[in-house]
Amino acid sequence: MAATGSAVGLGNIWKFPYIAGENGGGAFVLVYLVCILMIGIPIMIAEVLLGRRAQRNPINTMRHLAAQADASSYWQLIGWMGVLAGLFIMMFYSVVAGWALDYVVASAQGTFSGGDKNSVGAYFTELTQSTNLQIAWHSTFTILTVAVVAAGVTKGLGNAVRFMMPVLFVLLLVLLGYSYQQGNFMAGFNFLFSFDFSKLSGQSVLTAMGHAFFTLSLGMGAIMAYGSYMPKDASIAKTVCTVAFLDTLIALVAGMAIFPLVFANGIEPSAGPGLMFVSLPIAFGNMSGGDIFGTLFFVLVGVAAWSSAISLIEPGVAWLTETFNINRLAATGSMGLVAWLGGLGCIYSSDFFNFLDKLTANFMLPIGGLLIAIFTAWVMKRSHLNKELGDISGLSFNLWYASTRVFAPLGVLTIFVYEVYSLFA
Ligand code: PHE
Hints:
Layout: H1 2-7, H2 10-22, H3 26-54, H4 58-68, H5 77-108, H6 117-129, H7 131-150, H8 154-182, H9 185-193, H10 202-215, H11 222-228, H12 236-264, H13 275-285, H14 290-324, H15 328-348, H16 350-379, H17 382-388, H18 394-424
Helix pairs in contact: 2-10, 2-12, 3-4, 3-9, 3-10, 3-11, 3-12, 3-16, 3-18, 4-5, 5-7, 5-13, 5-14, 5-15, 5-16, 6-13, 7-14, 7-15, 8-12, 8-14, 9-12, 10-16, 10-18, 11-14, 12-13, 13-14, 14-15, 15-16, 16-18
Bound molecules: phenylalanine.
Phenylalanine (PHE) is lined by residues 6-7, 9-12, 89, 214-215, 217, 220, 222, 308, 311-312.
C-alpha cells in the first residue's frame, strides 16, 4: 500500500500526460511502457530486495550489503545519491502539489464554472506568475509532508492509501466517461496509442525511460526504504508487479481522460506543465456537480502527491535519525527546510525547476537504478537473492536474474549512449 502511495502521484496525473504531449504521443508511450516492463520491474524487485534484506535506511543498507559481500564501501554512494535525488525532486514536486492545492480552493469557489481554454488558461498563468501565492501553497504542502514524516511513516499511511486511491481511480473513470462523451475521444486515443516513430528523438527516448523510473519512485532509495519495512513473508515479486500495474493503469487512464479534452478544446498537446491544470477544469466547469467533483478531485491529487512526497524525504530522514541519534522531528524539519528553500528557487526560476526535473528523472534515477541492478545481480550472492525471492518459480527467478544482470542495465546504457549519439548527430 505504501509503495503504491509512493508510486502513484503527480508523475501519473500531471507529468505523464504533459511529457507524452511534448514528445509526440504514441511512440513515446510505447517506449515508456517497454521501459516499465523490461527495466522498471526487474530493478524495482532488486531495490525492494536490498531494503528488505538489510532492514536499514538506504545508505546503511548499501554499506551493510557491500560489507557482507566483501565489496567496496563506495556502493553506499547509491544511498547518498538517492537522498540527494529525493531532496531535488521534492523541491519542484511540492510546487506542483501546491498548484493542486490552489485548485482545490478555486474549484470549491466555482472559479471554473463555464470555463474554457482561455479563462482556465488565464487562471493557470496568473497562478504561476504569482510568487506569493505559490510560496504559500508550496509551504503548506511542505508542512503537511513534514508533519506526517515526523510522526513516523508507516502508521496511518497504509490506511490513507487504501481508502483514497480507489476513490481517485473512480474519479478518473468518471472523467474518462466525460471525455468519452464530450471530448474528442478518437483524437485522444490515436494520439496516445498510434505509433509514429518519426517523432521520436534521442531526447524523447531518454525522457520516456527517465519517466519510467520517476513514476515507479525507482532508483533513489524510496522503494528500498519501504522494502526495509516489508515483512519477510510478503512476496516481493507480486508486490512489485501489482504496484507497477496500478501505477501504469492510472497514468494511462489519466492520459485518456485528458487528451480528448485537449483536442476538443483546441489546447496544444505540447502545452507543457499546465496541460492537466488547463484541460481538466474545463471538464469540471461544464459538467453538472462539477464544482464539488473538481474540488474532490484536486483534494485527491493532493493526497496522491503527499503520499509520494513522504517517500521522497523518508530515506534522508531515516538515515539522519539512525546515524545521529536525533529525533524524527529535527531530522524531518531539516530535510523539509532544505527542500523548502529549493522550492523557492523553483518558484522564482522555471529554468531551475526544469533543471532539477531533468537532472533527477533523466540522470540521477536511471544511474541509481543501473547501479542497484549491477550491485544486486553481480555483487550479491545468488543464493541470497534466491532466498528473498523464494516464492517465485525457478523460471521466473531466472528471467528476473537475467533481466537484472544483463538486459535492464544494457537497456539503460543503450539509451544513454543513444542520447549522447543523437546530441552530436
Ligand atoms: N513516483 C512519484 C510520482 O509518480 C514521484 C516519486 C519519485 C516519488 C521518486 C518518490 C521517489 O509522482
